[in-house]
Structure formats: C-alpha cells, structure tokens
C-alpha cells in the first residue's frame, strides 16, 4: 500500500500530480472548521503532512500515530514543537532559499511604503481628496542615505541589506547571533549590539525567527531606545514584539511609524488599535507570496516530503 499524505493548503496542480504518482493523497485546499473534523479523521492513518502554519504539538501528534514527516511550506517553523516531533522520530522540513528574494522585496517595499506613506496617499487620491493645495501634509521621509538596522541577519536580512546598500546608499547596522561576512564585506554592514542598533537606526527591520529567546524581544524598553523619527518594520513573527508596547509607542509618537507584515495573532483581530493608526502600514503576512515563489516553495516542500517517506534525507531537514 502506498503511504498516505495529507496536503492541507492550496498548492499548484503539478505538486498534486507529483505526489499522486508515489502516494495516496488527500487534498484540503484549506482547513476551515467544516473540513477540520474530516482532516482529523484522516490524520490517524497519515504518514506525511504538507502545508503551513498549522500548530503541530503534543495534542495534535497524539492523533497522528503513523506520521513520519511534517513538511512545512515556509521558512519559519515556529508552528512545530520540535522536541515533541523528535521524541516521536518524526522528520520536519522547511523551504529556505527559494523565498529569499521575494521576501526581501516585500519587506523593503513595506519600508518604502511606510516612509513615503504610499497606502495613505493612494487612499487620498482615490477618495477624491487631491485638490493640489496641501502638498506638505503629504510629505514622507527619505529612505536613501539613511541608517538601516537589521535584527536577524540570515539570508533574507542579507538580501534586504543588499537592496538597501546597493540601491539606496543606506548604511547598514546589524545584530545577529553570529557575524555575517558577506553582509560586512559586500554591503559594509556593521555588527553592533542591540541597544546601539536601536538608538542609531532610522529604520529598524526585525527579521529574526521566533524562538523562546526572541519572544517579545522588542518591547517598551526597546521602543524607548529608538529615535522619535524611527520607522519600525516587522517582517519576522508578531510574537517577537510586545504588541501592546508597539501600539503605545505609535500612539505616543515615540517612533514615527511602523510597517507590519506579521502580528501577535493572525489574522489580526477586528478591534486591534493598529488598524486605526495612520502611521502604520499593514500587510497580511505575505512576505514570500508571489505566484512564482509560492510555486517553488510548494515543489520544494513536496520533494522534501517524498525524500523523507522514501527513506532518504530530505534536502531541507530541520530535525
Ligand atoms: C513565512 O513567514 C515563512 O516562514 O515562510
Ligand atoms: C531565511 O532564509 C533566513 O533569513 O533565515
């Protein structure tokens, strides 16, 4: 009998065709509440799981006694309880590499959009308020030649530094667990401690994964250290930030603005004060979301899954 695989996110047809050749495939284009109980039923006999963001912890795994591999269609894997997976000898994989440039484009675009107030101005034009008399109310701040501080200098941080240095003549400061020689040599990035980065940067871009060490790493103290003219960009995980402190910093103008792709809870809840703040630009966690890149991620994730179930080492093994 073929091993059984559950795909729980919409993926390109070619991915399903590829998997169908090797496995018995159950395909859920999404997991709404209606379908969730069917999914849980099937989970009991599944050997492989392909998708993203689903919280896979002890309770979940109790219902998946035959599981051999969890293949995430994402670079982040904070949805996975790695210790619990390891204990059960279940493999886990992610999709680094293929999403680096698309994500860097999004996050740098978010920085530009926030600095130059593009969503607000788009609304201004479309709502018929452009009467040609009040230009100065529409001014933003420059991005070029400013200081960009990047917290978390992995491959995406590095690609953001490249855009900033080569395209916008920005000076780069960075903080990371280890030194990044490429960023230092090619983009003149300067390594510094977190407090120095926070107090010297005009733009602060948070790109670190979410771990117990980075949980709420940016809070009241950190916003206090930032310049009043600083713009804070979060392209990592919402839980890396104390969201209440961020809201206070924005409301009290301790910083100039924020560009956010991620939130403490996603989707963001209706009453969240961030939604009422003019100096905030919001995106719906779409860092890597282009047609081309999401296709590459899904293919890579399917290859990881197939290798794992065929007894080989998947190329992007996390554990
Ligand atoms: C997106 O946030 C990812 O982890 O790929
Ligand atoms: C992803 O590739 C990262 O920046 O760690």
From TrEMBL:
Coiled coil: none annotated. Pfam families: 2-Hacid_dh (PF00389), 2-Hacid_dh_C (PF02826). Residues 5-318 form the D-isomer specific 2-hydroxyacid dehydrogenase catalytic domain. Residues 108-287 form the D-isomer specific 2-hydroxyacid dehydrogenase NAD-binding domain. InterPro entries: D-isomer_2-hydroxyacid_DH, D-isomer_2_OHA_DH_cat_dom, D-isomer_DH_CS1, D-isomer_DH_NAD-bd, NAD(P)-bd_dom_sf. Keywords: Oxidoreductase. PANTHER family: 2-HYDROXYACID DEHYDROGENASE-RELATED, GLYOXYLATE_HYDROXYPYRUVATE REDUCTASE B. Belongs to the D-isomer specific 2-hydroxyacid dehydrogenase family. This is D-glycerate dehydrogenase. It comes from Metabacillus rhizolycopersici.
């Amino acid at each position: 009998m073929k091993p059984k695989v559950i795909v729980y996110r919409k993926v390109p047809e070619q991915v399903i065709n590829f998997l169908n050749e090797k496995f018995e495939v159950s395909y859920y284009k999404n997991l709404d509440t209606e379908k969730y109980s069917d999914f849980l039923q099937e989970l009991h006999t599944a050997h492989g799981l392909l998708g993203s963001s689903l919280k896979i912890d002890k309770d979940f795994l109790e219902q998946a006694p035959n599981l051999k591999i969890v293949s995430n269609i994402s670079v982040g894997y904070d949805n996975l309880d790695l210790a619990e997976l390891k204990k059960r000898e279940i493999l886990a994989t992610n999709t680094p590499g293929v999403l680096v440039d698309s994500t860097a484009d999004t996050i740098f675009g978010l920085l530009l959009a926030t600095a130059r107030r593009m969503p607000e101005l788009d609304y201004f034009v479309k709502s018929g308020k452009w009467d040609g008399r009040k230009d100065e109310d529409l001014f933003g701040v420059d991005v070029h030649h400013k200081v960009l501080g990047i917290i978390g200098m992995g491959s995406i941080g590095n690609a953001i530094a490249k855009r900033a240095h080569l395209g916008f003549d920005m000076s780069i400061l960075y903080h990371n667990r280890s030194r990044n020689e490429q960023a230092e040599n090619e983009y003149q990035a300067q390594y510094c401690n977190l407090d120095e980065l926070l107090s010297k940067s005009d733009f602060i871009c948070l790109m670190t994964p979410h771990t117990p060490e980075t949980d709420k790493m940016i809070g009241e103290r950190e916003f206090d250290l930032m310049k009043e003219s600083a713009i804070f960009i979060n392209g990592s995980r919402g839980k890396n930030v104390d969201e209440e402190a961020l809201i206070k910093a924005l409301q009290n103008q301790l910083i100039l603005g924020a560009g956010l792709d991620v939130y403490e809870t996603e989707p963001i809840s209706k009453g969240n004060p961030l939604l009422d703040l003019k100096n905030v630009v919001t995106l719906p966690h779409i860092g890597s979301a282009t047609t081309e890149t999401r296709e590459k991620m899904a293919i890579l994730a399917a290859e990881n899954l197939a290798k794992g179930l065929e007894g080989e080492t998947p190329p992007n093994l996390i554990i």
